[in-house]
Amino acid sequence: MAIREHDLREIRDAVAKLCASFPMEYWRELDRERRYPTGFVRALTESGYLSCLIPEEYGGAGLGLSAAAAILEEIQRSGANGAACHAQMYTMGTVLRHCSEAQKKKYLPKIAKGELRLQSFGITEPSAGSDTSSIRTTAVRKGERYVVNGQKVWTSRAEHSDLMLLFARTTPREQVQKKTDGMSVFLVDMKAALGKGLTIRPIRTMINHATTEVFFDNLEVPAENLVGEEGKGFRCILDGMNAERILIGAECIGDARWFIAKATAYANERKVFGRPIGQNQGVQFPIARAYMATEAAALMAERAAALYEAGRPCGPESNMAKQLAAEASWQAADMCLQTHGGFGFAEEYDVERKFRETRLYQIAPISTNLVLCYLAEHVLQLPRSY
Ligand SMILES: Cc1cc2nc3c(=O)[nH]c(=O)nc-3n(C[C@H](O)[C@H](O)[C@H](O)COP(=O)(O)OP(=O)(O)OC[C@H]3O[C@@H](n4cnc5c(N)ncnc54)[C@H](O)[C@@H]3O)c2cc1C
């Protein structure tokens, strides 16, 4: 695959070029109708970007997390929305480290070729929320199958994915010593499961995110689709979560850079009181502040990605990168809207769409308070508060 030889600068330029063939009107129309960007996802798949983390022996580009982060950042920086397909990258954190050789051989080459999509990650449940160990979806082993019952919510892209990484309880919470034990991860063939114990219902939201709720009613999953060891799934998910935090951080940095470029251009061009609005410090300073916050977040994201790639612990850095980047993108979004005055509300400027889209990252994949709880407990050694 061509991108194998490229360095990050070349990857960035190539992604930006691909994104330029999907103009802002494309994203506006999809947003209006809440439609999935099938053409964009196909183009990214065919160019090999979505399989950049899959090792070469399985048909991918075998690149590191920094390359994946650069790809997602460029997508967001172009004004597009990579949320339609980012899961295929962040699920790799779990898949590459915990799937068996047989599972990798079965699925990865097809994912790399674009014959299968792994875009769905089912963790969150309505009653458990951020308290993942309280999930109620169960998978009970019956011979060579697990029988799954329960419900997930906010399972994004479920209607556009062939495979789902599903997190379910295999031993009741009361029967395990540590509440994070007794949970397991499964690779679910969604197309085979639809109508045979799996039901998907779309949820309309303030952004175009193809998110859904998913119901399991005696869904049978072959035992060979268990990922890693039964009961030790929390560990598998944690490995995926650090990758997810870093990649979402990169998307936020891309968003922030889009807002900053958009605001700067507008502040230079818009004349009020006979001069560009950008000549006023009241307009300049928020742009400069957003820029500073973005560059600081980008440094943390780079550090987290370097640790992840070196196989070193990176929980604090990944969480800080995600949080700082999500805060920087929201700061930049607010600044950009303010800089545009009334025109920021007009659909054709794309600011209001990106403003709504980037707000998500204060909540998902982990809400800001929970990142702070994590740092307080695990880094600062304060008493656990949750
Ligand atoms: C558009 C969208 C897409 C999503 N996609 C996916 C997906 O693909 N797969 C998936 O599994 N999930 C997905 N999610 C779910 C997302 O990860 C959760 O919404 C998020 O983790 C927060 O959980 P919750 O919504 O249940 O909030 P809750 O856990 O109910 O929390 C509500 C509020 O209370 C705060 N809070 C809760 N407990 C504490 C505490 N102890 N201390 C301080 N504050 C606290 C939280 O910070 C939050 O602000 C998505 C969500 C959205 C909105």
Question: Could you give a quick summary of the protein structure above?
Answer:
This protein has 386 residues and is of the alpha+beta class. The protein has helices at residues 8-20, 24-33, 38-46, 65-77, 87-90, 92-98, 101-113, 190-193, 233-269, 281-309, 315-339, 351-359, 368-379, and strands at residues 118-122, 138-142, 145-153, 163-169, 183-189, 198-202, 212-222, 226-227, 271-272, 275-276.
List the topology elements.
Blueprint: H1 8-20, H2 24-33, H3 38-46, H4 65-77, H5 87-90, H6 92-98, H7 101-113, E1 118-122, E2 138-142, E3 145-153, E4 163-169, E5 183-189, H8 190-193, E6 198-202, E7 212-222, E8 226-227, H9 233-269, E9 271-272, E10 275-276, H10 281-309, H11 315-339, H12 351-359, H13 368-379
Parallel strand pairs: 1-4
Antiparallel strand pairs: 2-3, 3-7, 4-5, 5-8, 6-7, 9-10
Helix pairs in contact: 1-4, 4-9, 6-9, 9-10, 9-11, 10-11, 11-12, 11-13
The structure holds flavin-adenine dinucleotide.
CATH architecture annotation name of the largest domain = Up-down Bundle
| Through-space gap between termini | 46 Å
Q: Looking at this structure, what is the CATH superfamily of the largest domain?
A: Butyryl-CoA Dehydrogenase, subunit A, domain 3
Rg for CA atoms:
21 Å
Find the count of extended strands (DSSP E, 2+ residues).
Answer: 10
Number of helices: 13
Mean pLDDT: 96
Query: Structural class, from secondary structure content?
Result: alpha+beta
